[in-house]
Sequence to fold (52 residues):
Amino acid sequence: MSRYNIEKEKLSKIMTVDPAVKAIGADAGDVIEITRDSETAGEFVFYRLVIE
Fold:
């Protein structure tokens, strides 16, 4: 978080009922890292705050 100078509450959100969140066992308040392949960027990493 300090690397990007951002507060946890300012991240995009993802719900605890999301199948991906359930699959990894994340709880509300956790920050998860999501990595996707991109044709233009190669690999794209972003973060989400898990909420109820």
Remarks:
- The first strand starts at residue 12 and ends at 15.
- DSSP finds one helix and three strands in the chain.
